[in-house]
Specification:
Strand order of the largest sheet: 5-6-1-7-8
CATH class of the largest domain: Alpha Beta
Number of helices: 13
CATH superfamily of the largest domain: Reverse transcriptase/Diguanylate cyclase domain
Helix content: 25-40%
Mean pLDDT: 87
Shape: globular
Largest sheet: 5 strands, mixed
Number of domains: 3
Structural class: alpha+beta
Low-confidence stretches: 400-405
Strand content: 15-25%
CATH topology of the largest domain: Alpha-Beta Plaits
Radius of gyration: 25 Å
């Protein structure tokens, strides 16, 4: 084997991002909330230690958070996304190849060096990310992706026990067998609750016992996916890095409202915002779409009775421009809008997606060159000066500005500044 796999995992990522720019939060309990400040979606170690579970509704746990002196913050996805990009860029400089697995995790490949040298490499990468970006990370390394995942979990356990800084290299046999004996079968990456129950019924409790099962039984009871997992645990690599993103079939943009929305004008504005953002995402990925679906829904429980509806339509040609998608979203709202109920959520779904080039243009349609130049100019301005610097008037103005303020925006009453993407939100030092 000429390469090994590493899993680089950012620790308590959303909390860590907040702490980078606010030193007062270090060593203090911190919780980050979901959209509309509803549930806890990120916890510092202090909050975890107080027993606050992931997804805890704020109203049920607010007293506990107050008792431990926790700082409760609204989610700041613009900041988190930019910090994630910076972390990934450093990994990319060090690794042979990179798979952006999620906003806070990445798989990478490195040369198959000695275990000692791999340990040094992992520690250097950890220190570099901490120094350059400010985010603490763990690095788990193994001969396969599944073993790298187990190495990462072991690095986490060792660090909590005070045995290391958060790096671990999977050992060779027979020490690997000892490691896998300590891993519950339900903790194996790719083993869901149904397979966990099936394995327990067979008397299999650990990763070591699972990989020792006969191949025919695994293939029969757990399909080829389970068999690949067993092979990965034996050191046989079956899962390559996903360097190319799978073909996108649909693209959905939606948000729950901070308050109930009753007026058609506000719904039109919200849908325009989502359509505009969908167009930006299409352009980012070099895609165009032709189908659009609009959906609206009220709160599922309580009075008045629940109402939900959607409608789909087609555009004259494939596009990644915001204006035609916005016009379509406003047109499609008309047949499904009902006056009276307060709406909780609205969104758009773009489908019939294909690569931007090459594709057949409409015979009678306008040439795309001018439209593409305008879209590129807008994207460049938003990249340089921050998202939503320039946009369509139909989507209203962000953050409650002026007469066209978005009354439907999410509750984010405790959001920190977007330090890395907005000049106007940088802190100003006072003499």
């Amino acid at each position: 084997m000429d390469q090994v796999f590493a899993l680089i995992d950012c620790e308590n990522f959303y909390v860590s991002c907040e702490r980078v720019f606010d030193p007062s939060l270090r060593d203090k309990p911190v919780a980050v909330l979901s959209n509309n400040d509803g549930c806890v979606i990120a916890r510092s170690e202090e909050v975890k230690g107080a027993g606050v579970p992931m997804g805890a509704p704020l109203f049920k746990w607010e007293e506990t958070l107050d008792e431990i002196g926790a700082e409760v913050l609204s989610s700041n996805y613009v900041l988190y996304g930019d910090i994630s990009r910076r972390v990934h860029s450093i990994i990319e400089e060090e690794a042979l190849a990179l798979e952006r697995y999620s906003i806070d995790e990445a798989f990478a490949t490195f040369p198959a060096l000695s275990r000692e040298n791999l340990s040094r490499l992992a520690d250097r990468l950890r220190r570099r990310i901490k120094s350059h970006v400010g985010i603490p990370v763990r690095v788990g390394i193994g001969p396969t992706k599944t073993l790298a995942k187990i190495a990462d979990e072991n690095a986490k356990a060792r660090k909590r026990a005070g045995w290391g800084q958060g790096t671990y290299v999977c050992p060779p046999e027979p020490k690997r067998e000892e490691l896998l004996q300590r891993v519950p079968v339900g903790d194996i990456w790719g083993i869901g609750s149904a397979y966990e129950e099936k394995l327990h019924q067979k008397g299999v409790a650990s990763a070591a016992e699972f990989r020792a099962l006969p191949d025919p039984w695994i293939r029969s009871e757990m399909t080829v996916v389970g068999l690949r997992t067993a092979w990965e645990l034996r050191g046989r690599s079956c899962l390559d890095l996903e360097l190319v993103r799978p073909d996108r079939k649909t693209l959905v943009r939606s948000r729950s409202f901070g308050e109930r929305v009753e007026s058609k004008a506000n719904l039109r504005e919200a849908l325009a915002k989502h359509a505009q953002r969908a167009a930006e995402k299409l352009r980012e990925e070099g895609l165009v779409g032709r189908g659009i679906q609009v959906f609206i829904t009220t709160k599922r429980f309580g009075d008045p009775p629940h109402y939900s509806n959607s409608v789909a339509g087609s555009l004259p040609e494939h596009t990644a421009r915001g204006a035609p998608l916005v016009r379509a979203s406003r047109r499609l709202l008309e047949p499904i809008y009902r006056q009276g109920p307060g709406y909780k959520k609205a969104g758009v779904c773009i489908y019939n997606i294909r690569p931007s080039r090459p594709h057949q243009e409409s015979l009678f349609g306008q040439g795309r060159r001018e439209d593409e130049a305008l879209a590129e100019a807008i994207d460049n301005l938003n990249r340089e000066y921050g998202k939503e610097t320039v946009g369509l008037a139909a989507a209203g103005l962000p953050d409650g500005e002026g007469n066209l303020a978005r009354e439907w925006t999410m509750k984010r009453q405790k959001r920190s500044p977007r330090y890395t993407t907005r000049w106007d939100e940088l802190p100003v030092a006072q003499a």
